[in-house]
Amino acid sequence: MIENEQRLLAEILDLFAQKFSDRAVLRGGMVLCLLGSPRLTNDLDYVFVPYKSKKDIVDEIINALNTIVGVSLKHSINSKCLRVLVTRAGITVQVEAKVAIKVRTATASTRLFSPKYRFPPRLIHVADYSVALANKMAAWNERRLIRDVYDISFYRQMSISPDTETLMTRLSKPSYSKLVKEDDYFTGKTEKDFYNFLREKTNTLSDKDIVNEMSDYLAPEEIHGLAMEIRASLAKL
């Protein structure tokens, strides 16, 4: 089942690379997969440029996805994004698309992911790594998920530093999940304050904690000793 899910993601990734080129900027967990992370994802997150309204991209995205043999689609639009559920042979993946007039980007290759599913490697645009890391840190602050900590650690192991402006802007106007208690909100003022806060909140992280939350995302052999690796990478912030 996982193999079929990843193959469908690879097919959509390849389709969008051909159909939309530099208009579709990949973001989220799949970017880490392209960089070599073993963490699984079951969705593709994009930002489409240069557009002002999500309504401007709906028809083109739906028409493109409908060219994939054997799929059925369900889509919805909310205040944040267009969301499309793509189903084939009982397997469902999600495509999420936001819009922007301009975004900072980097160029990445699909060579570590697509050829495993018999698609050629392609160069695609992805969200700028430093901006992506800053947004991931802000996302962790708002929802406190271990997979966010894992992603932060992965970026840090690649010597990527967060974009300060993006991070501080997000931290100044957080949108906290209901799972985060008010007395656990970040109240610091500086980037250094946040790094200390992040380290404090993760200094008791254990492999068992990672298993409990990430067993659907990581193979068992990837988890042993991972908590120590994460703490070590955060110590270098």
Q: Which terms summarize this structure?
A:
237 residues, alpha+beta, Beta Polymerase, domain 2, 2 domains, five-stranded mixed β-sheet, 10 helices, 7 strands
Describe the protein.
Helix 4 (129-143) runs antiparallel to helix 5 and helix 4 packs parallel to helix 6. The protein is 43% helix and 18% strand. The strands form two sheets. It has a five-stranded mixed β-sheet. Strands 6-7 form a two-stranded antiparallel sheet. It has ten helices and seven strands. The model has no long low-confidence stretch (mean pLDDT 96). The protein folds into two domains: 2-127, Beta Polymerase, domain 2 (2-Layer Sandwich); 130-234, no CATH class. With 237 residues, it is an alpha+beta fold.
CATH architecture of the largest domain: 2-Layer Sandwich
How can the largest sheet be summarized? 5 strands, mixed
Strand order of the largest sheet: 1-2-5-4-3
The coarse overall form would be: globular
- Mean pLDDT, to the nearest integer, reads 96
Proportion of residues in helical segments? 40-55%
User: Structural class, from secondary structure content?
Assistant: alpha+beta
Low-confidence stretches: none
Determine and state the CATH class of the largest domain: Alpha Beta
Report the β-strand fraction as a percent range: 15-25%
CATH fold-type name of the largest domain: Beta Polymerase, domain 2
The first-to-last residue Cα distance is 38 Å
**Total count of domains:** 2
Brief summary of the model shown:
This protein has ten helices and seven strands. The protein has 237 residues and is of the alpha+beta class. The chain is globular, with a radius of gyration of 18 Å.
